[in-house]
Amino acid sequence: MIDRLGKILAHEDARKLLLYAICGGSGVLLDLATYTVLLAFEINYQAANACGYVAGTLLSFALNRHFTFQTYDNTLRRLAMFCAAAGVGYLISTIVLWLLVDRIGLNPLLAKIATLGVVLVVQFSLNRAITFRQR
What is the pTM of this model? Predict the structure, then answer.
């Protein structure tokens, strides 16, 4: 199994996706922690989602810039593009949260967790192709 994992990670895209998931996972943890704390203070789940998303996005950008894509030029431009990709992810997250919470009646925290996989793939694809593209 370790040998197979090594072969998979030898492929650059697979390695970058794994690093992206780890770095993004740190952002997701911050996002979830912020979201959970704000829910505990009875903040509206959509407002809590926005606050958590911003905090997680900024952490994820810093980590992915350094560890996953190793791009250090045009920081403000790349941050703007990363935030635009995050905006797409946020839009998806917001719509799915609304459907799961308001229409289906799912617990807001479980609904938030349910959105994470789709958002991960969408944002990785956008960031790899646009934000951290090497010139």
Answer: 0.73
